[in-house]
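Much of what follows relies on a compact textual record of a protein's fold. A record is reproduced here so that you can trace the correspondence yourselves:

. . .
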Amino acid sequence: MKHAIHIVLAALVLTTGALQPLLPVLGHAHAVTTCWMTALAVEERGHPESNAEAAGETQATDETDDDSDKTPGDTTPFPKKQSGRTVWEKVLSAPGWLIASPFIIFSYLAGAAIIVDEKYDVAKRTRAFLTSDDGRRGLNPVYTPIGGFGASLYARDYFNDDFRSSLTASWSSKGRAFYQARWRRLNLWDGFVTTGFRVQYRNLPDEKFYGIGPDSQLEDETNFQQLQPLTDLMIGRRFTDRFQADVILGFERDDINEGKSGGSPSTTDVFDEQTLPGVDVPASMLRVGLDAYWDRRNRKFRPSSGFWLLAGGGAVYEPSHTDFGFTTLIVDFRWFHDLFYERILVLRLAGRFTDPLPAREIPFYKLAELGTTETIRGYTRGRFRDRDAIWTTVEYRYPIWRVLDGVFFTDFGYVSQDVFSKVFRIDDVIWSAGGGVRLWDMEGVRLRAELGYGEDGFRFHFIIQ
């Protein structure tokens, strides 16, 4: 029977050797097994004083054993000490240790973190520092196609009721990075003037370029890296609760490098400065502009009536060189109408227009473009570029839950070197259609998930803002 037990135990060791590192609770399994085997050995031999045959067998055994194994007054030998595992058992267990080691390390680190947190209240102190019970300070997740996933630490209503500030950082697996510090609506002189400020850095290693004009083809894709630090100062005047105008002074630098995506050639290898302005020359540009906002919506949360209008323009100029300089004009009009039972119809008409200054050029990455989430859904960002772009949207929104809406949409757009003078062709119209969901809070849309279909096929758009 003893040999049978040894065989069974050896089979169990072989079977569970790879899994043993995952079961810390079996750390004393060897000691328990040894005690159990000892008890069974004693039971098999029996007690000499009650079994004469067993006593005889024990005596015969004792005569052949070494005297060092005997205990005075006891005729049963004490089992020899065995090692925890033999060499071949350790070899068979090695794959299990390798697989389990990350989990074991994580469990130790998690345990240490819990001990530290219980002693110093790290989580509670961090939460108290980053957030507040009154909602004036907090931490929100963010995701954009440009920057990837990250977080935004915000503070509001500290200097005046509508003051807003935020620190945002986000990254993506492709190497994209986005960092921004910003404040808005800081009132001066009892609200006579409102100010804003922004510092931002973007690293976009695989931006796409397909050509210029409505005939650009998907198979002509190239990619480039864009490094862009910028800063803006905004000084404005809120004339009413609904209307505001801002003067914007800004500076930015753009460096275009070899693209990091291996799926297509680099834009810097395919084009030069003569064929594509801005592809080889870094640009340090000053910006001066004026933006006006007119908000006649009935509310920010699920607006169901009224309109929202942005009209702005300005000039971008590079003082250190004679290469780049251009003007921009943007118009964005959105109209909201309640059809029935919170079913909302939204119509949008927007356009962006750029024009070079005399003897200057427009960098290709500053041209008007279609294909972003805010223009024509169903296409990748920068799919169509040219000096001018116009687009329109029709949306049907319906409530799903308290703060969740469904949406169906169709988008139409057009790019041209000059939309006002060039002959319009219906074949050049870019279209898409699709649907999705939106999550709201009292400040507006916080999450958008939409699937659009266009001439290039399906494309999914997702934003947490």
About this structure: The CA atoms of residues 203 and 227 lie 5 Å apart. The helical segments are 2-16, 29-45, 52-64, 87-120, 122-130, 267-270. Residues 2-109 form one domain. Confidence is low (pLDDT under 50) at residues 1-72.
